[in-house]
Protein: FXL18 protein
Organism: Calonectris borealis
Amino acid sequence: FFFVPQEIVSGESEEESNGVNLMEFSDEILLHILSYVPCTDLVLNVRRTCRKLATLCLDKSLTHTVLLQKDYKVNKDKVKQLMRDIGKEIYHLNMAGCYWLPSSTIDHVTRCKNLVKLNLSGCHVTSLRLSKMLSTLQHLRSLAIDVNPGFDASQLSSECKATLSRVLELKQTLYTPSYGVVPCCTSLEKLLLYFEILDRSREGFMLSGQLMVGESNVPHYQNLRIFYARLAPGYVNQEVVRLYLAVLSDRTPENLHAFLISAPGSFAETGATKNLLDSMARNVRLDALQLPKAWINGSGLLQHLKFNNPFYFSFSRCTLSGGHLIQRVINGGKDLKSLTSLNLSGCVHCLAPESLFRKAEDDIDSSILESLVVSCCNLRHLNLSAAHHHSSESIGNHLCQLLSRLKHLLSLALPVCSITDVAANVEKPPTASNLVPQTFGRKVRIGIQTYPRNLADQANQKIESSVFWALMGSLRFLETLEIIGSSFSSAMPRNEPAIRNSLPPCVRAQSVGDSEVAAISQLTYLQSLTLAQLPNILTGSGLINIGLQCQHLRTLSLANLGMMGKVVYMSALMDMLKHCKCLRDLRLEQPYFCAGAQFFQALSHCSSLQRLCIVSRSGTLQSDAVMSFMANCLEVIMCHMFMGESLTVCKNLQQSIVRSFQADRPALNVVIFPLLHEDLTEVIRDVPMRHLDEITLFKSRVAEEPPNLWW
């Protein structure tokens, strides 16, 4: 937050203080400036600076909504003092992901008598504490909680249940088979369910999806408008969600307008779910839809469902053809301006007229993509990753040229093979770099072309005429970009051992490298960038341009760039990091990565960095360099490193970091562990969900769920 000079506070003129007198700004301007300061700093520090700020810091516009979800410096004492000072003025309180706060911290929320919205996802809350707290919050209408093993709904008081009966919005993350508080919420209009139940206990026992005795109360869905369920991998999660859906299949809410189920892998359709979908087709008009792929594949469901003004569709991993997409979803190319978010990730035939006799690598039908672009001209989020979308040689019909018409795009995910120039691919003979095997075998010595290191020199090359360069130039306001190899898979999946072998990149992707990365530097407002499996990275020179030009970059994820046996872009990465002053999250996944003194010295320039994750098969680290980095970068609260070092080295370093920095960084979360160790999955299950979901695990996040799903 800003600093007010003592001379100004004491009343000296601007000329005498030789500085800007902030106190002469209008209250409106000062309130706008103060809105960027964390509430804990405003109440506990800034308001003690002078009388004027003491008044402004308690303005309703600043105390109405308190966001603690990424205030990693907040501790129990600060929360206690905050609630004591302004508790009665707080109407919206977000403590999501505050995993480091002890469960007793929740007791202080009872001071917020006027709370309307409360988010406690990721916080430690027992049944008894929840009951005591909710009993005092009579105005509560929106609630987000976790349901952990040991949760007992019978411990909820009648006053607590009375509060829950008035709740309209509920977000519930389940770590154990349970209805949680859903049966008590008789007025629900929005229900978000996150199923994170493991199939096995820590002791190795198989868990059952059957709900415990006494939890068979029927959920009340009659007023439901939005139903959303996201399942982590595992059979138990599927069993439990079916119990939640059983009530919906009996009677579909008349006002339901968003029905979304995100399920990885195979989630078979049953008689009950078929009845539910048939009922939806007869009785409701939807604005948002996402279904498991098995429920859509081979069925005529989309032909019967009715849509009102849809804003979100997800057909991720479905075998939906482009012909069906246009005819059944986009109504034959009619106006669909209301659609703002579309997820076609892994939908390999979505840009082809039919899928019966088509190979996944065949060229797309540009007329289908053109119909999509024309009909959905207001798209802000589009995901086309995890598929081979190869453009034909037709002039003006390249995928990048068609997408450049979507001027409102804020986030975009594309497969690497979709951005290559067709003509260049056809005319250009194979180079030495293209012939290098993407495996861990014997290294081949090749000549490395010298690439220019600044944007001006690269602009003089042919890259300015490439279709991808033109696309990046047309999407000036893009904030999130993902370029991911269609066959890429992370070495660290969720509930399985680390993957030891990776599939080779698509042949069309072989030419994508430094010049394409340089083109990304045109995105002045870029905040999040993911690059995975770009095989023709030779020096990484384009990364430097991004560091120089994309000054708003907050999240960077790089995986398997260039040759797999050597980190060819290390020098360029270190140069890039020196310019990334706003970078908060960095994820690197690359075999043979050396996390040494030079790397951490360059990373220390990222003064805003908060979270670091490195995944490297056969990778090495220098413990002294890591400790020095942690000492220099005071904002870092998460350090996850899965390398090739021994278990002893990893444990010793982890313990040293925790011992040295935990006291000053209450939110510090450190996991350093051998990537190929058999106990990796057990270690992963203890990582806070916020970090696991947002950075540690690799996935495409564009259009993953509807925008503004939760406040």
The radius of gyration is 27 Å. The first helix runs from residue 6 to 9. Residues 1-16, 212-216, 426-453 have pLDDT under 50 and may be disordered. The first strand starts at residue 65 and ends at 67.
